[in-house]
Design a protein that fits this description.
The complex is a heterodimer of chains A (907) and B (117).
Chain A (H helix, E strand, L loop, with lengths): L10 H22 L6 H18 L2 H15 L10 H19 L8 E8 L6 H15 L4 E3 L12 E7 L5 H9 L4 E6 L21 E5 L10 E5 H24 L6 H24 L1 E3 L1 H4 L2 H12 L3 E6 L4 E3 H22 L3 H6 L6 E10 L2 E8 L6 H10 L5 H6 L2 H7 L21 H10 L3 E7 L3 E9 L4 E9 L2 E6 L3 E6 L13 E2 L6 E5 H5 L9 E7 L2 E7 L1 E11 L11 E6 L5 E5 L1 H4 L23 E8 L5 E5 L3 E6 L13 E7 L2 E6 L1 H5 L9 E7 L2 E7 L1 E9 L8 H5 L5 E7 L3 E6 L1 H8 L19 E5 L3 H11 L5 E5 L2 H10 L6 E5 L7 H10 L8 E5 L4 H8 L5 E4 L3 H12 L2 H6 L1
Parallel strand pairs in A: 8-10, 15-23, 18-20, 25-33, 34-35, 34-36, 36-37, 37-38
Antiparallel strand pairs in A: 1-3, 1-4, 2-3, 5-6, 7-9, 10-11, 11-13, 12-13, 14-15, 14-21, 16-19, 17-18, 19-20, 21-22, 22-23, 24-25, 24-31, 26-29, 27-28, 29-30, 32-33
Chain B lengths: L1 E5 L3 H13 L3 E5 L2 H11 L3 E5 L7 H11 L5 E5 L4 H10 L3 E4 L4 H12 L1
Helix pairs in contact in B: 2-3, 3-4
Classes of the chains: A alpha+beta (907), B alpha/beta (117).
Pfam families (chain A): CheW, HATPase_c, Hpt, Response_reg
Keywords (chain A): Chemotaxis, Kinase, Phosphoprotein, Transferase, Two-component regulatory system
GO molecular function (chain A): phosphorelay sensor kinase activity
Chain lengths: 907, 117
Amino acid sequence: MRFSEVQWDSEEERLLFVEEAAELLGTLEEGALKTPPPMDAMFRAAHTLKGSGGMLGLTQWVDRAHRVEDAMDRRGHPNWEWTPELQQFVLDTVDAMRAELQGQNEDPGATTVWELRWDSTCAMPGVRAYQAWTAINALIPGTVSEPPEDALAEWTGEVSRLVIPSSTVDPDVILTTLQSIDDLQAVTRVDRPLQFTPASLDAHESLDTEEVETRRMTAGERRDATIRISADSLESILEGLGELLLDHGQLEHLWQQTIDPAVRNVLDHLRRRALDLQDLTLRARMLPLDTLFRQYPRAIHDIARKLNKKIQLTTTGGETELDRVVMDRLHEPLLHLLRNACDHGIESPDQRRQLGKPEIGMIRLTAFTAQGHVHLRIEDDGAGIDWNKLRDKAVRQGWLTADEADRATEDQLGELLFRPGVSTADKITDISGRGVGLDVVRAFLDEIHGGIHIESQTGQGTTFHIELPMTMAIMTALLVEAGPWTLGFPIANVERIEDIAKSGLASLLGQQAVPDGQAPLPVYSLADVLAPEVDHHDRYIVRIKDGRTQAALTVDGVLGQQEVVIKPVIGLTGLTPWLSGVALLGDGRLALMVDARRLVPATGSEIEASQEPDPILKAGSNQMELLVFRLSDGQRYGINVYKTREVLPQATVTRVPGQHQWLDGFMHVRGQTVPVVSLHRALGLKEPFNQGFVLITEFNQTVQAFPVDQVERMVRVSWDQVKPLPAVLEAGNTLQFTGLINHEELGAIQLIDFEQLLAQVAPPEFPVASEISTEDLSHFLVWIADDSKVARQQIEKALKPLGVRFKLFSDGQELWEQVQVADPLPHLFIVDVEMPRLDGYTLAARLKNSARSRGIPVVLHTSLSGHWHADRASQLQVDAVITKFEPDVLASTVRELLSRPQLMATW
Amino acid sequence: MKILIADDAAFMRMRLRKLLEEAGHTVLEATNGEEAVAMYREQNPAVVLMDITMPEMDGVTATRHICQSDPKARVIMVSALGQQAMIVSAIQAGAKDFVVKPYEVDRVLGAINKWAQ
């Protein structure tokens, strides 16, 4: 019989077999990799595997186990020897048996749902539903009835359901069993997804267990039982708790005036419980590193065999616990480093003999906890790095000048190995390939906010040192204010806080060194580092130490320390590499979490490789960041992050009579009075429920606020995912939409055309360009791409007085396609930034890179302002960037560009 | 087939006996739960038709006793409408099925045939 054909008496029985077999196979595998192998234990394991397989009648399984048992049985025989061939045979057999098992071990959480429709004449449907539950539960324990079985005595109705755990019981058997019950009119299998649908797996997800074992927290007799819960569910619980704490913060904010001790008590209790639960849940996410380490001895064995080398891996500190999320991400880089050590570190047995080293190369994998971080070391006793050869290479490659190379420390040289592209450089025997993919390893670790550096002694071996956060979800942060921002630093990285006035610093201007005992320390104004033009009044110095980065940062204010739940900011990291996440504070504000290592250069590493801008969000990638929020209809809406300034808790709105019906009034934000526009009324929805949030946005050179019900997260999307809104949806709305995105996790996200919305609330004035051209520009042709009809009209109106001819396109793709075929081409392009299909950044980059259009000036015309956009626009070689909507500026820029002499010459 | 009827109402027993004998069964009668339990032990009938409300010992309790001593016992509850909760307890106690009074002939015989197999 095959494994899949086994008829299990119960799910428990099946699980018991699978778990026990997995353990025994582990014993065999680990034993086979030890010298000498524990023969007796391995023999017993094979024997037990054979026995239990025999009980089930698994012919192939039994045969395999038998052959291993047989081989081990001859141990002690004078001619018997534990040979590499025998070792490989055992390992191969383990693999084969494991494969057989794993076919059965998939998806333990899946359930099937059966809908039972009872005859309308049935006298007591509750009894029938109960009979059905009894019968199925006897077949597959753990079956649940809806309504619950203990409520069926009172139940009358026509449709009940059974939720049946996955099992090897044939669905036909379930069906036949159900059909034997009277009054059953119909049975339908209506499987639905689990309550928490597993999100798409990360590409580098490679642990084979998708679940973590967690303690069941319910009271009662099953206290010690473990259940499996998907990591995604755990994640959802954590997020829920985070939001609960946030609600608490808001409640406390609302009730801060109250002195009623009863209310205080409840609030305090609520907070304590929520924090306790968060703590418990976080702990449930921690796993011992052994779960990861266990798979490496086998991997090393296989690699060594392929390379004809002798290598032994030892691991210590496997009991160190680490957040599962971090651990999953760790597997790939760790395997990479181990593979590197085998491939390029450890020498061949012959070489090692000649060098007087033991034939067997050693790789040590060590884990330990220190200073709130988990540390990992991967040490090998191989060839190490020839630093002098690396110096030569660095000079040849032009990374360093000869002088720099001479002065460079090993630390600094080691950093060079993490540069992208090092691996493609010509080979240097000893370090050849040392750099293979080290940039990739670092990128992986960056994602989980880990650090890595390399130490090596030529001829002696190499050590990689990895530092990881224990958990990515929660930390104690020091909150500070700099300019308009609230920022947080992990408290573990804060060394000292000083008052500027009392610090005895000579001067804070520039990046002056502070006398600090031994090492001079660079001083930066945090606000200046983030955005040079913002207003700030630095009063404190925060000294930061993070790995090898040390700096003194001056800030406006210090808000104190707070436990925060960190939400990842996906994608934004490209533009703001220092941003390690966003924390929601009790009062609803967002704090930006700073990764100091990426904010200021590492101390003493003045020769550090210049950082290429992250390719992900660099201009021309046709991508954008959306801040996703929800309104009272529960739908998701998105706004370009470039348009947003901050998210505030609901603030007091001063209503003004006689305004546009979508205008709520005005509110005060950081010394500025801004209009509050109701998306709810614009969309015909009911008003937001009580306490929501307010999105403060900045575009069209104005600041405006939009109340929303819920702010979810930021997502990175590509403009080519933006689809026009289905006509049905668009029809009922007075609002216009840029389009709709079907996000793989969040589902549909609607993109409101915010410029259009604003134009409707406050119709733009059309100040006609005041200077009327005296030159004749009528022979010039201008192409304009803008997805907003209003914007196209505005541009048309602004350019009319110039007398130029123009052609209008409703998105970037349309214009780009015409560029390929049109003749003649225009004399000037004016392109909007935010357009479906192909955004303006990408369009501009393509126009400038295409031989056909390279010589034609491009004007980037956008409602985006703020330094994020400025950053991105500056990466492009466009001829002008104009902010919407200033007809004068547009007209004069166009005229100036068209009158350039070189342009005249081309035509 | 040997069938035990447990019901305190003589009329019901008579009606059932007639129906069952016409179908070719042998009928035993008990007038309360205690009697039913004792008779089941002595006579080991193939099927029991059990009323719920009876003096001395009710039908649910009697069912529990019978099913405890013989897990394979086939007890079918005979009940009036509105006794759903009682029947659920009877099924928990081991009863196999139920029929509702006033019953249709086919239903009673159908249930007996189904469970007697």
